[in-house]
Fold this sequence. Notes:
Strand order of the largest sheet: 1-2
Largest sheet: 2 strands, antiparallel
Number of strands: 2
Strand content: under 5%
Helix content: over 70%
Amino acid sequence: MGCPDAASPPPARRILGGTVPDPAATGSASLLFIAGIGSAGLCLGLLLEHLILPRLLPRLAGPPAIRPGITTAAAGFALSALLAWRFGTSAELPAYLVLAIAGIQLTRIDFLHHLLPNRLVLPLLGAGVLLLAFAAAVAGNAGNLLRGLSGAVILFILYLILALTSRNGLGMGDVKLAAPLGLYLGYLGWSPLFYGGALGFVAGGIASVLVVLKNRGNKPQEVAYGPSMLAAGIAVILLAQ
């Protein structure tokens, strides 16, 4: 039996139409590496939450109570660690860490204020374009970036149509958030774009129904769709390439 070809690619798992490198086989996402990236994500999240956002959004982003602060910090560590496991040392990792860290704060703000501020959504889109352009250049595959940009346009237009034609409470903040989500999902493939967009809409619809049932007979309450969109998108990113 001959020795394996040193140039052959590492084993990969196929999920949702994409191939995900096996971290155990590549050795690129050891426990130490994962813990380090998780800790970095936690620190960056705290920096964004307590230093940057209070200056960027003084009316919305004051330091949260202790319990929500612990929750967002734990979420930052967990998501960053999972993304380190997912992407290893690839050039895509920084871009998706930015999505996770910003997404946690967008989720918190949308829950509290039913608002997805332009001052956070638009920089997320811009940073995503720059970081994914760098990743595409490193990989020598401009097609990934072009597909991501197409995904941003497609998901934005779809959510805009839904917001204009439906009565389910989608706001322009949700429409604008669809653009960076489409970018990040589309970069990985058409299947992730489809699953992420569809699951985000379904999850938002379920959340809307639950809110209506909870408040039956009471004053109608706004539904925050951003958290559902972000949760679905990041879940698909963790499972598919």
